[in-house]
Amino acid sequence: MAHSAKVIDLYDSLLDAKDDRTRAKIIASAFESLEDRYPELRDMATGSGVRQTELRLQKEIEQVRADLSRDIEQVRADLSKEIAEMRVDLTQKIASSNVKMLFWTAALLFAQMITIVGVILGTRMG
């Protein structure tokens, strides 16, 4: 009931006001009292404020998505390049190992052949 009395008092004050300037002052005072009584009204979000925030966030999300997609593509490209380089390096190492193995196999076969020839000649001479 106290709120109704204040509203009626405001109404009466407005009716009793002699000019527009006095009425404007009474209305401004009423708004000031309202803001003092409910300070959270100053921080209350408006529909347009919420919409602007939503649009800004959507734009930021799209930017993050674009940046992330670009970063992922860059990582893929770098990884593909590294894999190709490793493949070439591994192929060269395998080829080098094959050449070394072939050399040692040929050397061992030659040594075995000389040993066999030596054994054969040794048994004929002896």
- What percentage of amino acids are in beta strands? under 5%
Order of helices and strands: HHHH
The rounded Rg comes to: 47 Å
- Basic shape: rod-shaped
Distance between the termini: 138 Å
Biggest sheet: strands, sense, closure? none
Percent of residues in helices: over 70%
- Given helix and strand content, the structural type is mainly alpha
| Strand runs, count | 0
Low-confidence stretches: none
Instruction: Please tell me the overall pLDDT.
Output: 88
State the helix count. Answer: 4
Structure write-up:
The longest helix has 79 residues, at 47-125. The mean pLDDT is 88. The protein has a domain at 1-44. It is rod-shaped, with a radius of gyration of 47 Å. By secondary structure, the chain is an all-alpha fold. 92% of the residues lie in helices and 0% in strands. The protein has 4 helices and no strands.
What's a concise summary of this model?
The chain is mostly helical.
Protein topology:
Elements: H1 2-16, H2 20-37, H3 40-43, H4 47-125
Helix pairs in contact: 1-2
Quick tags:
single chain; 126 residues; mainly alpha; 4 helices
